[in-house]
Amino acid sequence: TIRLDRENISSIGKLQRLAEIHSLYLQKNQIEKIENLEAFPELRFLCLAGNRIQRVENLQALPHLSTLDLSHNLIQVLDTEELPRSLRILDLAGNECTRQDGYRDLVVAALPQLLQLDSQPVRGNMAEEEVGGGSCSSEEEEEEDVELLHELRIPFSVDKEFFMDLHREMAGRARQRRRLSLEEHRARLQELWERRTRLQGPGKD
C-alpha cells in the first residue's frame, strides 16, 4: 500500500515497476491528469478523490483494478470505454458527468462486474447474478462477493482488510492530532505563565 494523500502532489510522474503494490491513495492533492499508472500492474484499489482531474483516461493498464474513487474532481464528460471492465466499486460523485442523462445506466451497462456506483448498490448486473447462485464461481468466491455486497457500502472499501486498514490509519491520525493539540496547548499555557511572571516581577503572585 502507498499512501500519498494530502501531499500537494500536482502530477503522477513516471515510476519504476512496482508489481507488489495493490493499493494507492492519492486523494486530496492537486493532480490534473491520470497517467503513468502502468508501474502498478497489480493495482486493485485506487483513490484519486478530491483532485483536479478532468478526464478518465490511461486506466487500461490496470487489468485487476477493483475499486476506483474519482469523486469530487472536475470530470464533465465520462468516456466509459476508458474504465477497466474489472471494476466492482466506482465513485464519481461530485463530478459534473454524473448529471448527464442516463449516466447511471450507461456506466452499469459498460461495467458488468460493478457492484456499487457512487455509494449505491448496483442491481441486476452480471456480478450480482453470479453471487446469487451462478455455477462459474467457487464457494469461496461467492462468499467474498456476498460480503462485498452486504457489508461494504462505504467509499474507499474493497474488502475487510482495506476497511480495517483505513480505520486504523484514521484512528491513529486522530490520536496524533489530539496529542499534538494537547502539547501545543500546554506549551501555550507555559508561555503565558512565563510572560505573566516576568510582567509581575519578583516577589509578586
TrEMBL record:
<protein>
    <submittedName>
        <fullName>LRC46 protein</fullName>
    </submittedName>
</protein>
<keyword id="KW-0433">Leucine-rich repeat</keyword>
<keyword id="KW-0677">Repeat</keyword>
<dbReference type="InterPro" id="IPR001611">
    <property type="entry name" value="Leu-rich_rpt"/>
</dbReference>
<keyword id="KW-0966">Cell projection</keyword>
<dbReference type="InterPro" id="IPR032675">
    <property type="entry name" value="LRR_dom_sf"/>
</dbReference>
<dbReference type="InterPro" id="IPR050576">
    <property type="entry name" value="Cilia_flagella_integrity"/>
</dbReference>
<dbReference type="Pfam" id="PF14580">
    <property type="entry name" value="LRR_9"/>
</dbReference>
<keyword id="KW-0969">Cilium</keyword>
